[in-house]
Model the fold of this input.
Amino acid sequence: MAALTVPDMSLVVLVGTSGSGKSTFAREKFAPFETLSSDFFRGLVSNDENSQAATGAAFEALRFVAGQRLKAGLLTVIDATNVRSEDRRSLVQLARDHDVLPVAIVLDVPERVCIERNAARSDRDFGARVIKRQHDELRRSMRSLGKEGFRRVHTLDGVDAIAAAEIVREPLLNDLRHETGPFDAIGDVHGCRSELEALLGELGYVLQRDELGRPVDAVHPEGRRAIFLGDLVDRGPDTPGVLRLAMGMVRSGHALAVPGNHEAKLVRSLQGKRVQTSHGLAETLTQLAAETPEFRAEVERFAHSLVGHLVLDEGRLVVAHAGLIEAYQGRASGRVRSFALYGDTTGETDEYGLPVRLPWADDYRGSATVLYGHTPTLDAEWVNNTMCLDTGCVFGGKLSALRYPEREVVSVPAEQVWYEPVKPLAPVVPVAEQRAAGSLSIEDVLGKQVVETGTHGRITVREDHAAGALEVMSRWAIDPRHLMYLPPTMSPPATSKRADLLEHPDEAFAYYRSEGVTELVCEEKHMGSRAVVLLTRNPARFDAPAGWRGVVHTRTGRAFFDDATNDEFLRRLDAAVESAGLWQELQSDWLLLDAELLPWSLKAGDMIRDQYAAVGAAATGALPHAVAALAAAAERGVDVGDLLARTRARADDASLYVDAYRRYSAQTEGLAGVQLAPFQVLAAEGATFATRPHSWHLDVAARLAAADAELIRQTRSLAVDLGDDASVAAAIEWWDALTADGGEGMVVKPMANLTRLGKGLVQPGVKVRGREYLRIIYGPDYTEPENLARLRDRNVAHKRSLALREYSLGLESLDRLVRGEPLWRIHQAVFAVLAMESEPVDPRL
Ligand code: CTP
Ligand code: MG
Done:
C-alpha cells in the first residue's frame, strides 16, 4: 500500500481525465466536506452538474468556498480535472494567498479505461474525443507540476496504484502544539558564549562539558527546555562555542530553536553561495575556520534544518525570530518564513542604513503569546501579548530570557561591548506611545464583535449595535484612555401582584429566593444620575498630563463637568479619600468609584425643562379650567358626571406629576449643591472589588461621607435575611417609608456581591421603584386603574439578560485594566457595554 503524505494544512489538487476516478478517490480517502467538486458547484449555480456554460460561475463559487476553508486552516481537496496548467495556476495562488501548501495528486489512468468507464455512465454524455484531448493535456502537464509551485506531487500510475494508495496526514513542521513546556525563551545570543552560560545558570540549567571542558549541553533539573529565538551566530566573540552548546541542547531534546536571519545567511555562505560578509558574518567565518570540517558540516545541517516558526502549548505560544502576525501562525509559505526571519520590512532603509521594520506588534490582536528577538531593545517589554527578547547583548546590553508560562524576564548583563552598534539601543515602544489613543484601531470595534468574559463566557456584539456605539463614543464620550468602565443597566422585579402598584420589594425578594440567595442588602436609590469617578494621583497611568486628577462621567461616557469644575470636584474627593485613609488601605494611587451624582437636574436639566415641565405646565394650566367648566355645567344640571370625575382625577395626577419631577430638581452653582453618593469601589491598582461584600463597599462610602459631608452623601442601607420574616417586614416597611415621600425607591443586591450559583450569574441588583417616582417614567395618569391594568403586562426577561451581559462586560474591562492589559483590550469591553444599550428593550423598565 503506497502512503501519500499530505500536510495537515494543505490544498490538495486532484489531476486526472474524466473517468480516471477522481470523485471515487476523493470519496474514499477524504471526509465529505473536505472535497469540493466542480460538478457539485456547477449544480449549485445552475441546477445541472454537467452544464459547461456554468463553468465560470461554478469555479468562482468553488474558489470562494475553498478560500473560506483555508482561512479556517482546513485541509481542502479540489475535485476537478485540472489537466490544464492555467486551471491549476489559480489554485496554487489560492493556497499561497492563505499560506497553506499546494499538493497535487495525479490519477494517471489509461485512456482506454476512462473511455470505457464513461461510456457506462449516465451522468457523462461526451465521447472519446474529449477524453483524448484531456489525456494529451495531462501528458504535457506531468513534467511541469513541480515548477508550477506544488510543494508535493504524488503520481498514481494506473488503476491498481490508485486502489492501493493511502493518504497519510502529517502535521506541519511548525506544529508543536503538544509541547506544553515549561520553556525558557532566549533572545539573540550573537556569539556571546560566556553570557549564554551565565544566563542558563541563572535559569537553573546545569552545563554538561566535553573532554576539553567545552559546554555541549545543559540540563534543567525540573525538565524545563530552552527555546533559542534565532541569531545565535555572528558579531560576538565565540559563535562556535554558542553553536556547540545550542546544537547539543537541541540534539538532546533540552532545547528548541528557530532560525534567525543570521543563520539563514550563514547557511548560504556555508553552502558556498556568494553572500556579503558584513554585519558580523566575517567574524563567524574566521572563527569557524578554526573548527573541524565535520563541525562546520554539522552547523550547516543544523541551521538548515531549523523551522521558521514554532507553535507550542496547544497554540498558546508562538516563537519566531522576528515575530509573527496572527494570520501567519501555524501556516507555511514563503512569506510566512520571510516574516518569521526578517519581520515586516518595507524595503526601505533608515538613517543608519538598516532596513525599516514595521511595528507589527502594535497591531497584534492574537490570543497566542508571541516571543521573538531580532530588534535590539533596551528592555524586554510586553506589547499586546508579544515580547521582544533581544536586549542587545552583543552591543553591550544584556542577554534576556522569558520564563514561560511564568512570564518572568531573567537577564544577565553583557560582559562588554562586543560589537559597536550602528544605532543606539532604544525601548521597544516608549510606554507613553503604547498607551496612546493611537494604539486603538477602528477595526477593534467595527463589525460584529465577540468579547470573552471571565464571568459570562463569550458575549456577542451585533454589527449594527457596534456602529451605534461607535457613533456615540466618537461624538460624545471622553478620551478612551480615561474611559475604563461603563456601568450596567439594572432590571426591575417582575410586576407586583398588588392592585395599585407596578413594583414592590416582594417580587425582588422572590427573585433572589428562587435563585437561592438569602442574604441581601437594600440600598437607598438616590435620584440623581449614575456616575463613574476615576480619581488618580498618577496621571501617567492613564496617559494623561501631569496635574490631571481624573474624570467624572455618565453611563454613556460623557463628562459631567467642565474642566475647572471637574478639577475642583476631584480635588475635594481626593482630600476625602486621603482623610478616610483609603489611599493607604488600597495601596493604590488611583481608584474607580461607582456612584450616583445629585441632583438629577445637573445632567437632566434640559430634559426636565423640555419634556417633563412642558407636560406639567400644559396639564396644570388646562385641567383646572376644564374642571371648573365641567363643574359649572353640572351645576346647571347637564349630565357630565363621568367626565367631571375623570377630569378631576387627571388634574390631581398632573399636580402629583409636577411634584414628582420637582423633587429631583435643584439649583446648583458650580459645585454648590452637587453631591456624590458612592456605593461601590470598582477598582484600584492591582485589584477589583467585585467579590467584597456590599457591607465593605458601603462602609468605605460612609467613611468618605464622614470626611466631607457636604460633597459626599451617604447611601442608607438595610441588611435583609430572607429566612427571617421580621427582617423582610422591616425592609418592606423601609421601602414604604422611602417611597411615601416621593423617594425613588431602593436597590436590592446580594450582600456577598458577585454571586454565581448553579444556574450561572445572579442579577447583581434589582431596582424597586416607588409609586410616585414611576409617574415620571410612565406618565401622569399611569395610576388610573385602566392604565395600570394595561401596564402590568411587562416582561423583564430581556432586561435581565441585558443587565447580566453588561455587568459581565464591565467586570471584564476592570479585570483587564488591573491586569495592565493594553488599552484596546479594555476599550473592547467598555465599548461592548455601550453597544448593548442599542438592544431594543422597553425603556421604561
Ligand atoms: N470507477 C470504477 N473503478 C474505479 C474508480 C471509478 O469503476 N476504481 C467508475 C466509477 O464508478 C464511475 C466512473 O468510473 O462510474 C468514473 O469515476 P469517477 O470517480 O466519477 O471519475 P472522475 O475522475 O471523477 O470523472 P469526472 O472527471 O468525469 O468527474
Ligand atoms: Mg468526478
